[in-house]
Amino acid sequence: MGSAKKQGNSAARRARAEEMRRAEQARERRNRIVAIVASVVVVGGMVGGGWAIIASASGDDDPQSSPTSTAKPKVQVTGEKTWGGLARDHVKDSVDYPMKPPVGGKHDARWQNCDAIVYDKPLRNENAVHGLEHGAVWITYNDKAADADVKALSSKVEKTPYTYMSPYPDQPGPIMLTAWGHQLTVENSKDKRIQQFLDTYVQGEQTPEPGAACTGGKPTP
């Protein structure tokens, strides 16, 4: 009897030990899984953070977004029209632009001087567009614009760096303001949106080449 009892107790201990061993193995497996998951999360965070740092440091060459210290927050000017995906190739020939005045696209390698200059003759589109690429705002007018409005806008342009002004006889509106990818039509010089457009787009965040010169280009039409 004593021997049988001992054998029974021994079997029970072995069963208990086996149960505990299995429980320990299961616990170790859970711990390994947790450790692996944690490692993946940490590495993923490091990789993601690394990409974030690289992206922040490298910037973005998209012409609609130019991350520079001079970039201004984008504000949609009421009534403006916008275009994206504009080409920036340099060409020697004339370009058939789909809008008048053009808001961007292929252009001459030589930019129109665009630093607070008022022209009394129409500009060549291909040179004028290059001025837009440098972050300037081009103000144009046709014969529907009042003389007083032309005079008032001329005075404003002469005091505002990175702006230029010229007649544009076949444009659809009396007075139009154009930046790279953006255009606004107004009826007169008293429209408050004119200053808002200038504040937003003169060397604004839409500028493909922020800080590029508006002098040293083509001086006359």
TrEMBL record:
| Domain of life the protein comes from | Bacteria
Q: Disordered: where is this region?
A: 1-27, 58-80
Where does the sequence pass through the membrane?
33-54
Pfam families (UniProt xref): DUF3105
Stretches of Basic and acidic residues bias are at: 15-27
Q: Which UniProt keywords apply?
A: Membrane, Transmembrane, Transmembrane helix
Q: What is the name listed in the Swiss-Prot or TrEMBL entry for this protein?
A: DUF3105 domain-containing protein
What species was this sequence derived from?
Wenjunlia vitaminophila
